[in-house]
Fold:
Amino acid sequence: MMTHTAEFTLAAGDREHIVIKPSVLYVGTPVALITSINPDGTTNISPMSSAWALFDRMVLGLTSTSKGRENAMRERQLVLNFPSPDLWPKIEALAPTTGRNPVPPHKEKIGYRFEADKFDVSGFTPQASDLVRPPRIAECPIQLEAEVVATHAPGEWPAERQEAFWIIETRVIRVHAHRDIVIPGTNHIDTGRWSPLLYVFRHYFGIGPDLGRTFKAEA
Structure:
């Protein structure tokens, strides 16, 4: 009888792994656009791809020098706007911009520039929120109004890194979805009609065909 060890050895021989040191670990996460309120009352838009969900919580990772991070921690409110794949050029138009003035030196070095009006730069349309101050982005099919409930800095961050980050836990208090991606008469997203924009090792992708569902799927 073949042992488990032998089976694993055969599998390893079929797919040989090598050790690599990638500069980023974005194996495939959805792009989100965070809208937040600047101190002067204007709106900042922060493209990001470090977010995960559990129950009614969305946990975000934002760099320490991010204007969106600063706004979220000060105002304790934000909106997470999830774009569809066709919107990627608008996201990329935002990518080299920052709401910080002056631009942090390490960001300026790699091509960031200050932009006060992120809606003008991207061509996105502001849409009033119901329960929080920051506006939603009308073009994004899914929008989550959220409140910040906890924040903390990373542990054991290497001193040689140019900037650290903050982990921000938010509670989603209202969900908006384009009508055409909702199954009529339900609270369920139609996964045959909704496709998030994914960020995979700094490239943009949509999703492929439906491969199946987990036993916990509701629709």
